[in-house]
Structures are given as C-alpha cells and as structure tokens.
Amino acid sequence: MSEDPEVMAYLLAFASREAIAAWVQRQQAHFAQNGFGFWALESRETGEFMGATGLLHIRYDAHFTPAVEVGWRLARRFWGQGYVPEAARSALQFGFENLGLSEIVANTVEANHNSRRVMEKLGMVRDAADDFDHPLVPADSPLRRQMLYRLTRESCQV
C-alpha cells in the first residue's frame, strides 16, 4: 500500500522498505506511549488488511499545535466504498469520548479532493487563515502547503 504511487500521491513517499518499517514502528511506539494511534483496518468478511486510520499527536511545531490529528491511509482497491469515513468516525468518537479531546485536526494539500471530501463528511471545517507550510515537508515540494481542517467535540456528530 505505501509503495503504491496513487496511495502516496499526496503524502511524502518512503525512500525504502526500511523507511516504511520505521513508520510502522513509530505508530507502534505512539500507541504504547499514548494508548492510541493508528489502527490497522481489515475486512470484516475476509480479514484482509485494508489500511490504517487513527489519531496521532502532531510531532512538529505549527500555529495550531500541540494538537491531535485524525488520519488515514487505504489501499487503492478499497477506495470509494465508505471505509475511511466509517473508520475515521470511530477514531473521532474515541478521541472525544475516551480521550476527552476538545478538538481534533486533519490536514492535506488542496489537490487531495478525496481526503478533503472525507474531512467535510466528518463535519470538519477549514478556515483558509489556518493553512500552513508543513515544516516536515521540503520547501520545494508541492506537498508543503497544507489546508487545515478542525473539528470540536461540541460540533462532532459521530
């Protein structure tokens, strides 16, 4: 999944399989330290791995941090079937109800219409004044400029 150019089109590509393994290890460490993180998504019917979604503490400084973000990554063959909104709603519910978070954020580039549509389905709201240059993305990358979406516990409809 993380080697599929279409899946990674709006994410920084991994340089190697070792880099992918390091990403997985960071997710596991976040989960061990915080009690939450990205969960593996699997098919109820077949048990097949579909992707991942969940909540993470943002690990960079920005005008909206500290913050917790909701995110997802789904294998292409499962796109457009409603899995991401369903899984992300569960993550949001967990964040607000179990972790007591007052706000959860998400971000992506303007061209990532699919993820922006999911964020809007979740009730997340964008204010253009919140858009930012992602400090972990190279300055010359088209992925540098990010749109920030926010959702508060009070406005959450999950």
What does this structure look like?
This protein has 158 residues and is α+β, with helices and mostly antiparallel strands. It has one domain (17-152): Aminopeptidase. The chain is built from three helices and seven strands. The chain has helices spanning 17-34, 83-98, 113-121, and strands at residues 38-42, 49-57, 68-74, 103-108, 125-126, 132-133, 145-152. Strands 4, 5, 6 and 7 form a four-stranded antiparallel β-sheet that branches. Strands 1-2-3 form a three-stranded antiparallel β-sheet. Strand 1 (38-42) and strand 2 form a beta hairpin. The radius of gyration is 15 Å and the shape is globular.
Structural class: alpha+beta
Strand content: 15-25%
Span between termini = 28 Å
The CATH architecture is 3-Layer(aba) Sandwich
- CATH homologous superfamily label: Gcn5-related N-acetyltransferase (GNAT)
Determine the fraction of residues in helical runs and give it as a percent range: 25-40%
**Overall form:** globular
Number of strands: 7
Number of helices: 3
Radius of gyration: 15 Å
Element-by-element helix/strand order: HEEEHEHEEE
Say what the CATH topology is. Answer: Aminopeptidase
Mean pLDDT across the residues is: 92
- Which CATH class applies here? Alpha Beta
